[in-house]
Amino acid sequence: MSVTLSALHWAYLSFIVFVIGFMVSKRDTSLICILGIFTLGLLATGSLPQAVIGVFNSLIYAIKSLRGTILIISIIYGMSQLLKKTGINEVMVSPFAKLIRTPSLAYWVIGLLMMVTSWFFWPSPAVALLGAVLLPVATEVGLPAMGVAVAMNLFGHGIALSGDFVIQGAPKLTADAAGIPVSEVVSASVPLVFVMGIVTTITAFWFLKRDLKKGKLTVDDDVEISPVVDESKEEENLKNSLSAMTKRILAFIIPILFVIDVVVMIMTNLQGGDATALVGGTAVFILMVISLLAHKNEGLEEITEYLIEGLQFGFKVFTPVIPIAAFFYMGDMGFVSVFGEVLPAGSNGLVNDLGVALAEIVPLNKVIGSITLTIVGTITGLDGSGFSGISLAGSVARLFSISIGTGIDTLTALGQVAGIWVGGGTLVPWALLPVAAICDVSPFKLAKRNLIPVTVGLVVTTIVAIFLI
């Protein structure tokens, strides 16, 4: 099938190149994405007012597409803050603290617990829920704070976030840009996420053990000035508002409820938005019940306060994502939704057309396609968000898969894994601040320690992806 590229196609491709250039330069891409949408609208409609209207409508389209993801992350964050303030998190974690008896056990127990918790609570709230409780236990048995930070970071912001199997925020972004169902990206990411995770965490563990043995890393190394924690009277009262028995009961019930959610998902084949909604609805009820129990007469008002706190966090995370996602949605049917039926005759969407044209000019292969997607994913992570640019990975994956003739799900998952690992909080220092702050270590030293393990993991994962396509 031959495709004739118009000025619209070349403009879209040019702005993709500009976006990549801005990311490499570590500059924000919101402006270039909005200008890209405006230019596409002007070329497609020939009307200045329609192009301006299209910019606003494209942002609405992106928010509508992402609203479920933004809302569940907001609710989960609000709930996690409540668990932390009431001290329920400490009771939930305490049984695992008893397993931490050696530095090696500390690394793996904290890491695996962080991974599972992050699947349901997301990594940033999970760091707050676990870090303050487990850090003292780990350092007491001989694992330095840096080792705790590496474990929490690689298992949480690496393995858990790059797959995001439960909340499905990351696969939602990449799947939409690639034009495939979220379930396909999730399925394709499973082997890549675990290969990346196993290789990276084992490599990091080997370096930790080596440095501990040689005395290069001790419990007192890399520690910054400890922050003074001064709990207010109100926070202290809230922690004591629930009896020890009530906390134990809630600490048992909460994980059980989320496990039931997973069982229901498997048994009823719930996927995508429905699976996300089930977890979100469960979190809402948990938040309401605990708020009423802890705050008593003020519980009704406090429910709203926790939701507000959660929404502030959710929109803070996703605000940089919205303009970028809006631009890449223009590569598919989002363009028709925003500007109407104005694509050139015979067009199947800008990305599809460019993919067909690319296949006619440059027949790509699995090796080049996989390596390129890893590089693209790495570039998207340079801003330290992890999420803001992974739509680009989905768009490029679709482009390349048309040329290769297969592998759109694997290529999309590969770009997602690379983007999240680099930018989601394992290599870019300013993205490491939550873990670094909890563990009292330098984010720059933590990024340096993660560099070799993550690089090795990306190389091995890319090779595996080549065979999976």
Automatic annotation (TrEMBL):
Localisation per UniProt entry: Cell membrane
Primary site of residence: membrane
Gene Ontology annotations for the cellular component aspect, listed alphabetically: plasma membrane
Protein's membrane topology: Multi-pass membrane protein
UniProt superkingdom: Bacteria
Entry-linked InterPro entries: C4_dicarb_anaerob_car-like
One Pfam family per UniProt: DcuC
Sequence intervals crossing the membrane: 6-24, 31-53, 59-83, 104-122, 188-208, 249-269, 275-294, 306-330, 418-439, 451-468
Keywords: Cell membrane, Membrane, Transmembrane, Transmembrane helix
Protein name as it appears in the record: C4-dicarboxylate transporter
Organism listed in the record: Halobacteroides halobius (strain ATCC 35273 / DSM 5150 / MD-1)
